[in-house]
Description:
Chain A is mostly helical. Helices cover about 70% and strands about 0% of the residues of chain A.
Amino acid sequence: MATTTFPQTRVPQLNRMQLLGIGAAVVGLALLALGFVTNTLQFAKSYIFGFYFTMAFPLGCLGFLMIQHLTGGAWGVTVRRMLEAGALALPIFFILSLPVILAAYNTFGFDHPIYHWADPNIVTPGAPEFDPIVAHKVPWMSAPWFAGRMLIYFLLWSTIAILLRRWSLGQDRGDDPVAAATRMRRLSGIGVALFVLTVTFFAFDVGMSLDAHWYSTIYGAHYMGNSGLTALAFLIIALTQLRRTATFEEHVPVKPIHDLGKLMFAFTILWTYLSFGQYVIIWSGDVAEFTPWYLRRIEGGWLFFVIALIFVTFFVPFFLLLGRKPKRNLNYLAGVATLILAMRFVDMMWIILPEFHPTVAEISWLDFAAPLGLLGIFLAIWAWNMQRAALLPLNDPQMEGLQAAGGHH
Amino acid sequence: MQNRATPEIYGLMAEFRTPEALVAATHAAKHAGYSRMDAFTPFPIEEVIEEIAPGDTGVPRLVLIAGVIGALSGFALQYWGNIIDYPLNIGGRPLDITNWPSMIPITFEMGILLAAFTAAISMVVLNGLPQPYHPAFNVPRFERASQDAFFLCIEATDPLFDRSQTSQFLRTLGPLQVTEVAN
């Protein structure tokens, strides 16, 4: 086991991805600024949607980062640096959550606040539109506690991401790699449990509470499945840019790529299981408390989204990823991953936007500008972090597993 | 098989001390054009599997067919039972095909059930198991294949197999010993 220091890497592809991210961020944020001036209400709605969609990238990276520390395996050590770089976007995304918190406070002074639980007309006893069900939730669903929870979530996620990164880079600099691996595994064990709780409540806060009446206990799990699928698709696409670097050519065999393909296949099924599980339970119960959420999502043209989700999010990737040989071909996998990523966007549109737009014709251009800008920021941060460390944690004990899987030609 | 009626021996078995030596020997044998060979190791070695694995085991196709049949029969069973033969009003759910969401869990389970059984059973059967006797057992020290020794066997049915030349070839790969495997 060498204890050399690995220089940070100069990879032109990463530089290109960083520029692409900055470009997308500039265009997206400029459009958002324009939207803020012309239509502040639509800006706030689109921003919440874009934020909810984009958060799946850093959260999925953090989740998989902890999981691969716990499970080990050739795939984990292959993508660890990519996961660290993605998870390190979380502190920046705390700053980017500010417009969502402002929307919860109704700082922009909309007549009807986006979050109904923040509307005094709805939650004040005796008010004209008083709704006892929503008012009942106010002790939990209030703007200060919403902001406080955001602070707790992002503090926790950022701390875990920064510690795991620091200890992993310590291995590169010659710290005892086994001790560092043990530390990272212990933190990940606690971290995964806290991650499941915090992401569930994050999804409840930002996404589910847009309809303050409705609730589904599987909503948080659905968002985690979505985050996992999003992160996997992103990793596979990003891997096409790194595969031909000298580091990856030397150390990374085909097995970890095959494993990532299998994981993407599994998460495709998991997403279907969670999505359909929620639907079939509510459909079977047929209770007026729960069905309106689905009714809003089949009326006004949203039914086309359902059909696209069933076929293009489940059946098409399922059969494309079923065989063994295709999963060992990175370019083929990246093609499927692009389709999956596009459908993640469609899925999140269907989950969030019907709360704002009863018909698909009302979808605003800002609903595309917000994800573009935020995703650009994520990509730029990711590529920037990737260039500040070696592409693989070469001193980690897990690297031996990668060699045994057929690396080191 | 084409140029000899019954091979007098099963094949030639070379024993190696390390997995690296076995990997190198497998590569060399593949490179030399041998195709009918098998390796015996205490643990799976990915690179050896890649070289000697038969291209198409037939298992994936069988599993797919079984999975589809399982899913279709699961759906048909419920459709026939709940809609045609004995329609019951359960919670006001429709008594026609629009009741399909409630049938998906069983459809899914039946698909998995048949696919999983087919995968396990066809794996055993297509591997020729159970097989109480195998010529490889005649090789001295072969029980070490499940402890610390790495064996490569080139079978007599290989088109390129020649008792003396193949034996010579295996000896060039640095084995501990090369043994003829009695049939």
